[in-house]
């Protein structure tokens, strides 16, 4: 029975070893301590077999005694291994000191190797000769070993134990971690005490009881030390966790982002300081509350709650690019939020991290606004116009029955902008924009919108507007522009040209409708201005023809398609032809005969008038020189000069070259300019006219009375002749106002020492009337129609 009792005692360190093993989560130290207590249990079982007298045969007892002696023998190196394990983890710098020569892996292996040799010796008769029975009075019988002549070798194991104790003690004092240092030093002390008690087993008088006491000392002390260390570790971990929690709390609170967590019912379980301040509350006031408690907008709260429930149900994190909330001041704020479901042991919480993007949102909105609106007027620009129009005319738009696109171009705005300056031009555009917007407001056209799509172009879109209404609105807009635009101390007047296209008659998509409105606007602008026109298909033909004219004009000179006609001028006193005006005619193989009234404006607009005008001047001068060479009386040839030619920086050089190459005396060349020269820089223009005079040519002002000239300009221009426009000559004998105008022009010219030519004289009555007014020259059908070179030579030069 005592045998069984000792076996049960042996199980105590084993159970404690298992507890320590799992207490420290199977760490390396826990494994070594577990090994130490297993060896202590084996030692005690070994001693228990010595008390099995009468239970097992002597041979069996002898065998197990020698076998299980490994427990007591291997305790010594395992003690050293415990110290090595602790120092290896806690004193990494140890391996750079002198202690590295003792406390190292090789020493552990040597200790285990020598202990194993000691164990092997115990199997020989020289180590343990035999077991003898000891029968004390009133006590259990037990066997005791009789040692052989190598018994001294067992004493070396005791010496190794002492060395291990001393080494571990000095090494343990260097451990900085208080719990481990205390554990190792106390472990060394209790192990030394226990081992010292266990050594008494070497004496029969102790009756083998010391080993049981030693094993219990090992087990109980390790249990106490382990629990104590575990409690200290847990305490330190809790302290560290508290510190980390405090640190994390501070980090979360200092984080400018909004951080919070909600449970499955939508109650807040975490909120940082930034999030609490967003709603004007303390953190404690947020915890436990729901979205419905902190949001004033209950519909918004419901939307957020439902979204959160969806995320929790799908167990998948999401990133919400733009989330709207209402802050404590009732202002809308935009957040960029990441929401992540996090599973815990008991439930799932929703962690939210929000970044306030309100300023960025406002900035983006501002950028979007600037991208979509005109800087000067604040109106929507062409980009937004295209987007709105595309949206309006999208397919299957059942809400749209009709619509009107109205394109407005300001007449002569460029002239105002160039002469009065861009500041005035911008102010005028602003006032026009205001008036158009006010027109929509006053007419309660809430669905209509006005855009600025170009420099001086505005577009109005009228959804669900009929043709009759479009005419009414266009007429009203023209009336609005009859009123002046006042800013500063000045009042300005400007007129619009309006092109109108209708949906669906003129197109079913934005591009077609805008093109047709543009076509209608240019159509009216070319003809009369200050009016409106609804698009018709005939306009497309008009612009197609204009495009073809431009195309054919580009090669007309090279293809020799131009021809000059000459209309004679007669001296009003003698009736003799004194000069001729060269007039350009064009016959194209595709277009046929094209009127100058049709192709000259296009040539002006495209700049083609420069090479064409150079050809006209060259051809006219060569023809005049050839006629002189043929013996005809010299006549002055008049050539019309476009303002585009005058503005050409090489024009003076070109005129001089033509004069030189044609060999025509420049006094027989008359360059005819129009009053439009007054619209350009006066000093530069006057300088250029004087340099033309230096070449030797004469200068005439053609179509006088229809332009913008003034008496002050006439005094500065180096002119020789004024040509009165035919509109004043027509029916001059019947129209008193024309008579007055012509009389005034002739009188003024005489005072300025200028000659006067009357254009468009068609009968003898007009001829005689002009003669009575002392006009110098006349030109018109009464003298001759324009003639080609051959007819002019045969009908005029031969008879003159």
UniProtKB/TrEMBL annotation:
Q: Locate the PAS domain: which residues?
A: 244-292
**SMART domains named among the record's database cross-references:** EAL (SM00052), GGDEF (SM00267)
Q: Which InterPro entries match?
A: Biofilm_reg_signaling (IPR052155), EAL_dom (IPR001633), EAL_sf (IPR035919), GGDEF_dom (IPR000160), Nucleotide_cyclase (IPR029787), PAS (IPR000014), PAS-assoc_C (IPR000700), PAS-like_dom_sf (IPR035965)
Cite the PAC domain residue spans from the record: 319-369
Query: Matching SUPFAM superfamilies, A to Z?
Result: EAL domain-like, Nucleotide cyclase, PYP-like sensor domain (PAS domain)
UniProt xrefs under Gene3D superfamilies? 3.30.70.270, EAL domain, PAS domain
Which UniProt keywords are listed? Membrane, Transmembrane, Transmembrane helix
Q: Which residues cross the membrane?
A: 6-24, 33-55, 67-86, 107-124, 150-171, 183-202, 208-225
**Domain GGDEF residue range list:** 401-537
Which Pfam families does the UniProt entry name for this protein? Answer: EAL (PF00563), GGDEF (PF00990), PAS_4 (PF08448)
* Domain EAL span(s) in chain numbering: 546-800
Q: What is this protein called?
A: PAS domain S-box-containing protein/diguanylate cyclase (GGDEF) domain-containing protein
Q: Which organism is it from?
A: Litchfieldia salsa
